[in-house]
Amino acid sequence: MKNILVMHTGGTISMSENAQGVVTTNDTNPMTNIEMIRNIANITEKHPFQVPSPHMTLKHMNILRKTIINEIYEENYDGIVITHGTDTLEETAYFLDLTLNVSIPVILTGAMRSSNEIGADGLYNYISAIRTACHDDARNKGVLVVFNDEIHTATNVTKTHTSNTSTFQSPNYGPLGIITKKEIFFHHLPLTYPPLVKVNEDVKVGLIKAHSDLDADLIKFFADNQYDGLVIEALGQGNLPPSALHGIQYLIDKNIPIVIVSRCFNGIASGNYQYEGGGYELLNMGLIFSNGLNGQKARLKLIVAISNGLADTSLQNYFKK
């Protein structure tokens, strides 16, 4: 059997519903020491921390990264599974995808329903993640997310519903593969890129969503409070209200990089519109247009880029990938 390292980090998959119908953290994680999983793989379980996923920070993500590097250096693991809360699962997955240089499968999974709720999905997702981590075709595909019988890339997956068990989807691209009771099928291959391995936990990157009448002072806030970068979820294909432009120029004058993504659920931001605040003007001002990422992932990518000293053309090219 394959040797699989499991790291439990908390989240709904580790919680239970109490008598008042409120989901709360357990003293013991119900996903630990599951006997039926012992029949699938040789499991080593670690508990680097236990936090609800809204408490997840860049420091927590970096602890996971360092733990993985140390563990695979010391032991010959065939795959890694991380159980995680769903609210920020996609962010941790993408951070690890950007910064880990490993060929073995790294799989994140979680649950939308706690362990004692009707229709609880945690154990099933956990078993599916173990099975995927054992599968030879899961190697060299970057960090993956397994949920509800589907396999998604960390780059494309996002949480799309507050409570539905099929919440994790990959807009524009769809899942990488599917899981049946007896088989695992990968039906297309992801593009993978060399990681950047330096992570400075002190780098500060802000994230805001554009709206009509966006105030320039809101944008200027990030320069005045020593942020190192800003991501803006812009309108449509990558446009901003004219009211925001003074703030944009303020950041540019202070050499603070600004990344543009779209606030739209599907599609890619691009500099097509030539009017005041249009994407064409923003592109010419030096703003960076990301290749289809959502805001929360673009923020992590900019943190990693700054940590590794990327600037100007290198930064522009990094966000085209």
TrEMBL record:
Domain Asparaginase/glutaminase C-terminal: start-end pairs: 204-319
EC number: 3.5.1.1
Source species: Macrococcus armenti
Lineage summary: Bacteria, Bacillati, Bacillota, Bacilli, Bacillales
Keyword Hydrolase in record: yes
Alphabetical keyword list: Hydrolase
Any one Pfam family match given in the protein's UniProt record, by short name: Asparaginase_C
Domain L-asparaginase N-terminal: 3-188
InterPro entries: AsnASE_II, Asp/glu_Ase-like_sf, Asparaginase/glutaminase-like, Asparaginase/glutaminase_AS1, Asparaginase/glutaminase_AS2, Asparaginase_C, L-asparaginase_C, L-asparaginase_N
Gene3D superfamilies: 3.40.50.40, L-asparaginase, N-terminal domain
Name of this protein: asparaginase
PANTHER family on file: 60 KDA LYSOPHOSPHOLIPASE, L-ASPARAGINASE
Chemical reaction(s) catalysed: L-asparagine + H2O = L-aspartate + NH4(+)
Domain of life assignment: Bacteria
Catalytic EC class: hydrolase
Keyword Hydrolase: yes
Active site: 12, 86
